[in-house]
Amino acid sequence: MGEGPARVVMSTDLPGAISRREGKVRDIYEYEDGLLLVATDRISAFDVVMPTGIPDKGRVLTQVSAFWFDKTKHIVPNHLISTDVADFPAAVQPYAEILEGRAMWCQKAEVIPVECVVRGYLSGSAWRAYKAGETYCGYSFPEGMREAEQLPEPIFTPSTKAEDGHDMPITREQCVELCCDEHTMAMESLSIELYKYGAEHAEKNGLILADTKFEFGLVDGELIVIDEMLTPDSSRYWDAEQWRPGHQPEGFDKQYLRDWLDELDDWDKTPPGPELPGHVVSRTRELYVELMRRLTGRTP
Predict the structure, then answer these.
(1) Dihedral Cα 275, 277, 278, 284, nearest 10 deg
(2) Which of 99, 172, 220, 256 is deepest in the core (most CB within 10 A)?
(3) Domains identified in the chain and CATH numbers
(4) Average pLDDT over the chain, rounded to whole?
(5) How many Cβ atoms from other residues are within 10 Å of residue 137's Cβ?
(6) What's the gap between Cα 110 and its chain centre?
(7) What is the share, in percent, of the chain residues with pLDDT greater than 90?
(8) What is the torsional sign of CA 222, 167, 2, 30?
(9) C-alpha–C-alpha distance, residues 116 and 199, integer Å
């Protein structure tokens, strides 16, 4: 099952599924009456999956998602049926020890091929476009803004949903072309409402939710949230005490890993990735676990 002495799960191989698909982080198993999403401890950077895993990372992603799915179901339904292994297909019950805390039993849905990104702060690719004097997803930002500065209002900046390689920012009009005006309007409205809800909860816990992305699917024609929600892999969280405009705060995500990789002279950001040293593994794990603790009051 890929489990090492440090409880790092890099891959899974479960029986009885109709199909198995491997993403950068999740192993997705299709069964007749649902999907089993297993979050491994794999970590990627620059679109390359590293050969070294981060202990408990998959458990953090699953449990943070489950926390948010429960808290936001009054806003929009989601695909989560259960995180209790007892509710999973009978064929995987012998693997309960590994699946516990890192797997979700979910509804099947028709996936809408758009990443619904909401930004409340000027950072990442939006900041790079702003510095270059370019519009971003059709938006022109106010003059004189600084990196990490809060935007006047959260904005919807969708992107393509790439299985491999980079997601590409698109305009709202391009989003309509991909999935129709009705769904675009609904996804934009729901994404901004979810972002505001998440940002308010984060603020109460000393965190800033700078930006995040949601994915939607259709079940019997109804929009639901799928995949993950407001996790450190899908969101940019900052410590509120460290934040000030013009300065990029340390994030509760894999930025520490990216920074370390950027300093390497002998890796060209193509596969295979380098083995990660202990300090990168331990610091990255600390950040993921601390974010989960602040958001949910629990640890994996």
Answers:
(1) -80
(2) 99
(3) 19-108 (3.30.200.20), 111-262 (3.30.470.20)
(4) 93
(5) 21
(6) 19
(7) 87
(8) positive
(9) 16
